[in-house]
Amino acid sequence: MDLFAHSWTALRTAVAELPDEDFERPSGCTGWLVRDLVCHLVIDAQDVLITLVTPADTEPTVDAVTYWNLVEAPTGEDPLDALIPRLAAAYGEPRWLKFHLDDVGSAAGRAAELADPAVRVGTRDEVLTVADYLTAYVVEWTLHHLDLIAHLPSAAGPPAETLAAARVSLEKIAGVSFPAAFSDEDALLVGTGRRTATDAERAALGEDLADRLPFVLG
């Protein structure tokens, strides 16, 4: 629960501190500008709010690890993915995107703090506890924080604690262990295909693991 708040606060703070011109720069999400990614975060925050007020009375079907599936890399043909840039452009000035993310994002953060960790909620046709749901989202926030700063070297990155937690989660989801020599950030970037492994990194990974990359979460 604390890591959810830590990762979400850090990500929203990073967005709030971006100068307007950075919203037109590429993000780490292929085909999306920074403004598109921020618009996606607004929708993510809405999803968190919706899920936290959608109680379930059946047994959990997934936990923080099995909540995620390994899927094919996005092609850009998904209708929602295509809609995001149009929604982002409709905001016009970056200040309105910042305002909406701060407004909805703050509400999502407060809802998470007030939620009972043991309560079961429903989302994506699955049931899980609030604690597992919020833990799963630490991976989402951390990866998108890396996407946000991919081409913005002066922007603040994710906290070390959330990078470490997201790496552990990715390793559990994929059923692998990245080499100890990999930093948490590099393990996440290379592991999810956000950066191509260097020859030295491929050698450290080993042929079998290197050939399985990337691990795309969905």
Structure description:
- With 218 residues, this protein is mainly alpha-helical.
- It has 9 helices and 4 strands; from the N terminus they run ααβααββαααααβ.
- The chain has helices at residues 2-16, 34-52, 79-90, 94-114, 130-148, 160-174, 184-191, 199-205, 207-212, and strands at 70-71, 120-123, 126-129, 216-217.
- A two-stranded antiparallel ribbon has the order 1-4. Strands 2-3 form a two-stranded antiparallel sheet.
- Strand 2 and strand 3 form a beta hairpin.
Gyration radius (Cα, Å) is: 17 Å
Distance between the termini: 21 Å
Estimated structural class? mainly alpha
Mean pLDDT: 96
Largest sheet report: 2 strands, antiparallel
Q: If strands are numbered along the chain, what order do they take across the biggest sheet?
A: 1-4
Number of strands: 4
What is the approximate shape?
globular
**SSE ordering:** HHEHHEEHHHHHE
Helix coverage percent: 55-70%
Question: Which residues sit in consecutive blocks of at least 5 with pLDDT less than 50?
Answer: none
Number of contiguous helices: 9
* Percent of residues in β-strands: 5-15%
